[in-house]
């Protein structure tokens, strides 16, 4: 952990197929049932949220990245979420259910969130970034890093062209290598 590292001031993640799977639109009801297990090497907690037939879980490397955030590796960075989930109430149920560390909910890591495609949000993530900027006026798009699987559309390319946001595509769920590649864009 280097204190001289140059970092973006804001880092934003997509949820479905970037930090967790499966995608919310594939679920037939809201996941609410906590599934406990081992949080990698960090102890036990809620590792999944189930609706009885499907369980939403973080990708193992996305959990590791979230644990690095939770442990304070990036003290001056604001973390947020930009998801065009078709079922934002499902997303929020998972965010308030999943643990990152024992006793620390995923929701607590992300003070700014834009989730859904209603109330000013659309399938285009420029709308989510406008909402995030409203929540966090200090946000500077050119000093923001974004991760998205982009399996449905090129959100990373769109935000780069439209707003100057730098991003990394995570087509198989966020890996630690992709996270480092993103940080390297700000060296
Ligand atoms: Mg996605």
TrEMBL record:
- Top-rank taxon of the source lineage equals Eukaryota
Family matches, as Pfam families: Acid_PPase
Gene3D superfamilies, sorted = HAD superfamily/HAD-like
InterPro entries per UniProt: HAD_sf (IPR023214), MDP_1_eu_arc (IPR010036)
Q: Which GO terms describe its molecular function?
A: acid phosphatase activity
**Name this polypeptide is given:** Magnesium-dependent phosphatase
Q: Which organism is it from?
A: Triparma laevis f. longispina
């Amino acid at each position: 952990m280097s204190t001289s590292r140059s970092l973006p001031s804001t880092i934003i993640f997509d949820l479905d197929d970037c930090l967790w799977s499966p995608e919310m639109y594939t679920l037939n009801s809201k996941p609410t049932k906590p599934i406990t297990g081992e949080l990698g090497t960090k102890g036990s907690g809620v590792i999944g949220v189930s609706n009885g037939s499907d369980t939403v879980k973080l990708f193992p490397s996305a959990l590791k990245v979230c644990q690095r955030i939770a442990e304070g590796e990036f003290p001056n960075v604001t973390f947020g979420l930009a998801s065009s989930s078709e079922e934002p109430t499902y997303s929020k149920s998972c965010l308030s259910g999943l643990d990152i560390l024992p006793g620390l909910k995923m929701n607590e890591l992300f003070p700014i969130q834009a989730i859904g495609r209603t109330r000013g949000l659309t399938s285009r993530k420029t709308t989510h970034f406008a909402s995030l900027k409203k929540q966090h006026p200090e946000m500077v798009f050119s000093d923001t890093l974004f991760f998205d699987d982009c399996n449905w559309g090129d959100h990373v390319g769109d935000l780069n062209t439209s707003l100057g946001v730098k991003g990394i595509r995570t087509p198989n769920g966020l890996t630690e290598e992709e996270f480092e590649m993103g940080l390297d864009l700000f060296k």
